[in-house]
Amino acid sequence: MSEAYQSFLFGPDSVWVNITYGDRRIEQEGDERQIQPEPRPLDAGVFERLLAYQEQARQEERPIPTEYLFDGMPLLMYPHSGGLTSSWRFILRNQAAELKIGMGTRNGIIGKLRFSAEYLWKWRNLAVCLLDAQVTLADSIFDAPVYLGASEIHLCVDMAGYDFAESAWQEGFIRRSSFTPHFQEYTFVEEEAGGQDSEEQQADGEDVIYIVGSDRLHMRYRRITGFTFGSHKSAVSAVIYNKSHYIASKAKATTWFYELWKAAGWDGIAEVWRVELRFKRPALREMGITSAYDLPTKLSGMWQYGTQKWLRYVVPEADSNRTRWQVHAAWGGVQRAYQQGLPASDIDMGPIIREQKRVANMQQLVAQLVGCFITLHAWYLRECPCPDDEDISTVLHHFYPNALDYQQEREEREKRKGKQWSFSAEVRYRQRLYSQLVAVA
What we know:
By secondary structure, this protein is of the alpha+beta class. It folds into three domains: 1-13 and 151-347, no CATH class; 23-144, no CATH class; 355-433. The chain is built from 13 helices and 14 strands. The strands form two sheets. Strands 2-3-4-5-6-1-7-13-12-11-10 form an eleven-stranded antiparallel sheet, sandwiched between helices. α11 crosses α12. The chain is globular, with a radius of gyration of 26 Å. Residues 185-206 have low confidence and may be disordered.
């Protein structure tokens, strides 16, 4: 691979696991792999506790903190469920995870847990994340042994040095059709870098169908920002997008990625593109992955299949058979990303992530407040032109007594409903809501 192409960060970015009751508690390290599922409906006692929290959330018409802690922060119970057609009866969230809980009467699946990208990149160890979740679920929420089944995983690589927006994307991307069995001729082994010969031999088979180009092109202000391969319902799909542009324009609270990139060698200037593969449950079953604890040992094999067999970016040539076109040097670096195992990091990402999110959200709120204050002052002046020497202090001078009147009115309105409201209590609630304060409800 040319030194100009740099794949410097890779790992799971999103993980979903299904939860069923298990056959025994974890007694020693490594025993969680041996737990087998014992599907049964949700216990009545657990249902009653969750229902009490949900009723309180509905009365207050907002999420409320519960006694259940995950990653040091309370899980918040939301007042709504998954919807009329959903099997999920309760929804709990915090900055690290989203937990949906159902009755489990149809298939024994009593919950579904999604780890957030923030949590996964904070720890950089999927096995540790799974064990942390299993202990929390078994000892705190369900009060019984649980089994974690693999449901969906997104693997990614962040790279710099190549702009896919300028690539030959119309004919350079080739992938296997969804009508082609994914793993009929593929075994998960630690392959050597390259692996192109065996791929070409299999590609010549009559049962393999290839699709040229992406299914969807993403643009912003006429600028190409990404590509989609497959659909959300596909067993295997992929997205390639400009991650640095996405953070700058849509996800400013995730600027903590910059610290991860810099630690891996990013110069702080080059645009970063992300290649992300998404494997859903049908594909995981074809791989023989049922337990969530099978995932950490199969990451390299899944990535090899996704970037060598399922999707490739090649250099267009005169040969009419695209499967014989040479893999682009930038894509070669993408293919080799997981061969060394997940990289360790000496950086404590927890405080960095919290601070970056805090600063980004405060900057956004300040910009919104300034705009609101300007509008408020325009309404206050009515038909009088704004003097040149006025500034925002004039707005704040008029705003303060109005704010006090609003607070008093709000307190009286809540009191008539049988509730209590105060500025300090509301601030403490927001601290818990946005994971700024570790507290047990």
